[in-house]
Amino acid sequence: MAEDKDLPGLVGALNEAGAEASAEVWDDAAVDWGRFDLAVIRSTWDYSWRAAEFTAWAERCGRLTRLANPADVVRWNTDKRYLADLAAAGVPVVETRYLAPGDDVGLPDGHEFVVKPASGAGARFAARYTPRERDTAVAHVRRMHAEGFTAMVQPYVRAIDTGGERALQFFGGTLLHASRKGPVLAPGTPYDQRKVAHPGLTDWTPTEAETAVAESALAAVPGAPELLYARVDLVDGDDGRPRVMELELVEPNLFLWLHPESVPLVVERIIGAARR
Q: Which H helix or E strand runs over 98?
């Protein structure tokens, strides 16, 4: 389990601002969620291996208190097949195929590709393959199928090696800040080896095109829900234009340690949501 570097400082800042805030564990049966005015999902980074259990908890919690983000958003966003919904809405996304348990394991020929679970976090069970490593990739997919996971297959986006991946963070409906990180998947790294989720993270000023794509992704979320927080991860396609790699609406790392100037606004927006 990775450490959430933001959480202690955020809880402290909320309490200093007059809120009664505490960090609780989502699967702790002793927690009375109904005593809170607002529950904000933060670093529940173990959910991806227990997605059904986690979404059931979100629905229970959402009946007891106001949950951010809402349970229906959590259910939709914990399965990365949401990328197909975004693509259908006209949002530029990284080309993605899905292989559910029982499907034939058809993998690309002629170019590098990435295999990862449709429910995943922190690059767990993700790996990058060349066509020569096809047999290893097939074994990777079959391992996921044996454990009940749907696999997703994407072309390896070469621009990540030079331009990195940009993370645009929204809070309370407005752009909060942005960051850039380097490539996560090194050639030859086994899928079951732990990766550094955000290597070389730095501050980033998003372009107009990046902001427009990010906003189009948020506008395409089914039901147009009110989102307290969101992170849109972008990469450049072969045409040099940004496209969505992931839309994080459940438990995105806020990177407040890199952007301490954003803490007051985050605190203000959380307290405002709790008062509604």
A: strand 97-99
